[in-house]
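Example S7 (structure tokens).
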């Protein structure tokens, strides 16, 4: 069975204690407004675009609230589709959307009434609600995923701003032969097919640094597009990376050790004070995350 990865971006638009849900024509189930992220598109831009297409209104993006993953093994054409989904706060710029419009219905619901609504499982999970199985006819007609471009790659990763009780920061150095070689990076990496982001991050933390941590909070999302990334494949590839960043605490730190299961992309790992990180060549995402900590 072929495995396909996608990223979806969705919005929570609140008004007087209610929030907005949408439903495509031909579907019985409702979902949060949003949709799939296009190649090289920032998830924040994607949710604004999708919201406008679905409601006819514009919106601005607030904080990233939640990230979940789901797998549809019956996507058609012998394909298993893994979708990582991000939920942002939204604020409407030009008033409250109409209750219906075009081929998409919109509806305001109270939090207490949402349990009675046929809601797409991923929307329930993003809202922190139990996902309920729906009848087959509640879903839009399933279509096999479009063929992927042979030189395009999508990589969804989960990374950590990892600290210990003394305030030291754990960083990993990128190995030779990989984009950014020699720079110090946040622990983390691409998640596996079927893996939740936090699960993948804590796995990578053990593999790349030999540490056991716990996730404290979600910090945000970083978008990376390199149209000619040269790595172990030996030819330039058009890479799109969506990388969520979490705050992670290691309660009982040990010496940072890279294990064999890290896969060769990590040369070494180390603990550093905030002052020491100022002297290191950092990746953009690492510098940004450490800047949040120092702010």
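Recovered sequence:
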């Amino acid at each position: 069975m072929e495995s396909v990865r996608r990223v979806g971006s969705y919005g929570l638009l609140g008004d007087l204690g209610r929030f907005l849900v949408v439903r495509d024509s031909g579907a019985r189930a409702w979902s949060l407004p949003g949709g799939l992220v296009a190649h090289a598109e920032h998830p924040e831009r994607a949710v604004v675009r999708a919201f406008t297409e679905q409601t006819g209104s514009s919106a601005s993006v607030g904080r990233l609230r939640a990230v979940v993953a789901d797998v549809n093994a019956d996507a058609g054409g012998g394909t298993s589709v893994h979708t990582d989904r991000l939920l942002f706060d939204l604020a409407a710029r030009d008033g409250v959307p109409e209750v219906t419009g075009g081929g998409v219905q919109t509806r305001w619901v109270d939090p207490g009434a949402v349990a009675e609504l046929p809601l797409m499982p991923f929307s329930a999970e993003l809202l922190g609600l139990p996902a309920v199985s729906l009848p087959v006819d509640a879903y839009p007609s399933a279509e096999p995923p479009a063929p992927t471009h042979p030189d395009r790659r999508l990589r969804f990763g989960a990374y950590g701003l990892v600290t210990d009780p003394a305030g030291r920061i754990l960083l990993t150095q990128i190995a030779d032969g990989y984009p950014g070689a020699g720079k110090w990076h946040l622990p983390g990496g691409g998640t596996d097919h079927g893996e939740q982001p936090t699960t993948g991050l804590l796995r990578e933390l053990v593999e790349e640094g030999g540490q056991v941590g716990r996730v404290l909070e979600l910090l945000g999302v970083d978008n990376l597009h390199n149209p000619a990334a040269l790595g172990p494949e030996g030819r330039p590839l058009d890479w799109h990376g969506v990388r969520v960043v979490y705050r992670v605490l290691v309660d009982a730190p040990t010496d940072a050790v890279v294990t064999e299961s890290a896969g060769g992309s990590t040369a070494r790992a180390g603990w550093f004070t905030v002052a020491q990180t100022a002297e290191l060549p950092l990746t953009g995402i690492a510098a940004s995350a450490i800047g949040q900590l120092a702010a």
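Notes on this example. The radius of gyration is 20 Å.
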